[in-house]
Amino acid sequence: QVHLEESGGGLVRPGGALTLSCAVSGRTSGNFVMGWFRQAPGKEREFVAGVTSTGGTTYYAPSVGGRFTVSGDAATGTVVLQMNSLKPEDTAVYYCNLGGYYYCSGLTCNGSPGDSWGQGTQVTVSS
Length: 127
Prior knowledge:
The protein is an all-beta fold. The chain contains no helices and 13 strands. Strands 2, 4, 5, 6, 9, 12 and 13 form a 7-stranded mixed sheet that branches. Strands 1-3-8-7 form a 4-stranded antiparallel sheet, with no helix packed on it. The protein has a two-stranded antiparallel sheet with strand order 10-11.
């Protein structure tokens, strides 16, 4: 039984930074793909960033590119999302996801999630 657990959400002022972490347990060994998605009130869940567990390939939604950095560590089974220059529109519940498919078309990247989700962590950007 795969289990994903996020941590690191909170309240931050516009322009501030937060770091989200996701720990994966119970998975089989080997490389994997993980991602972050978010859901704001009244909106659908959307892709934020994806990474291979080797950290060799990363994917970012256009809205967060240049501000967010995602990294993965296959040895520890963790993925980290460093969020800088946060904006009020980044306010959402952020979910960690295992598996899925990520791709880029030109400079635009997107992702479809896998079946395993964390419980979510709230990020609020407000003055």
